[in-house]
Amino acid sequence: MKIKMKLSFLKSLRFRVMVLLVIIGILPCIIAESVIVSSYENRAVELKNISVKNQCDILGKQLMKEEYLKYPQSEVINSELAMFSSVFSGRILVINRDGRIVKDTYDIDEGKYLLSEAVIKCFEGENTGYYDKDNSYIVQTVPLKNMINKQVEGVMLISISTSDIKDSIAILRHRANLLLLIICVFVLILGFVWSKTLVRPFARVGKAIEELTDGYLDEEISVPDYTETEMISSVFNKMLKKMKVLDDSRQEFVANVSHELKTPMTSIKVLADSLAGQEDVPVELYKEFMQDIAVEIDRENKIITDLLSLVKMDKKASELNIEKVNINELMENILKRLKPIADKKKVELVLESYRPIVAEIDEVKLSLALSNLVENGIKYNVEDGWVHVTLNADHKYFYVSVEDSGIGIPQESIDRIFERFYRVDKSHSREIGGTGLGLAITRNAIVMHRGAIKVKSEEHKGTTFSVRIPLNYIG
Fold this sequence. Notes:
Radius of gyration: 50 Å
Distance between the termini: 41 Å
Domain HAMP: 196-248
Order of helices and strands: HHHEEHEEEHHHEHEEHEEHHEE
Shape: rod-shaped
Helix content: 55-70%
Strand order of the largest sheet: 2-1-5-4-3
Number of helices: 11
CATH class of the largest domain: Alpha Beta
Number of strands: 12
Protein name: histidine kinase
Largest sheet: 5 strands, antiparallel
Catalytic activity: ATP + protein L-histidine = ADP + protein N-phospho-L-histidine
EC number: 2.7.13.3
Keywords: Kinase, Membrane, Phosphoprotein, Transferase, Transmembrane, Transmembrane helix, Two-component regulatory system
CATH architecture of the largest domain: 2-Layer Sandwich
Number of domains: 3
Mean pLDDT: 80
């Protein structure tokens, strides 16, 4: 449990904000420390180089003035060389033109020969020097030039210890690390407190959502601390409204299903009881009652069939049987099948196709959806009316428009016509055999095909349904 809580904290926004603050607060300090120490070391070495070179230049002139290369026994020069070596904690080698060491302040290599690359370059008139950071010393060469003809007659090779610089850097780094430690502790505490403060509004959002989800309350959450929390609150409030609508719709659907299924059953029972309660029922009355019972059974069967169709439509789109279908032929077959109903109602059916269309669809489900639209246009039409179906396409979608000259839909009902069991005119719907499920089935089938359906209508002037379906199905 503790491990799970730790993992949960490591994945939390608070932890990530805290880490970000620590990185922002500490990383620049580490970089600054490194830059300062490095800059100090470079500057200290540079100053020491300049100081040593100046002293060596002065000393070199004195050596040449006293002709030290010929007479290295000069006590004055030797004492100055010894003092210089002592002051700078270094070693001085004086080398003549033959490469022989005429003076070594350490008294180790006098009389030996030294022809290193640095010495040779110095004889050629090039001052050389370098800083050995690992071993903490500076090496410089100073040419000893003849006072008259300025020719290089010898070289002074100086090795100077930089242990004092190294010690200073160690002290500087120690103090910087101590300061960095203080900053780290401060940033950690600040990050812990600040991250808690920063994520607190999100915790309030979570708590508010948790309180609301215990039951669909009428209240809305509002956490306007940040733009993000305000956006989350707004989105959640919209979702809550939709959930309330869905819950109300579900309850209404259950009530409507119960009512729709109960009504025919009640009628059948009343008719059956009437027959059972009478003796010597005339054959004509018996036949009339049985016909009424058959009508009610047909009505019940139609409701159940539509409900089953709706349930199938509610299943996952993965159950669609997608295949390439000629949409022009599909629409022609639908209108051909519905023409007898249109002729009976004296409604003219017209199909207008602008181009050949082949699309990837579930033929059975989409046929049912489009048939419902055309059939509604026929049923809810006026005598000598018309239903105009147009078929068109572009590079991405095909479009079906079903326009009729029928009774139209009131403006207040347009937003609800796709709800299950919703009827604009219940008495008229029952009269023509409607169940209130046709448009719900149509919309579900179109949505399953990643399509869209829109409706425009005006009372007593007709209705237009516009359907858009992708030519290529994307699962």
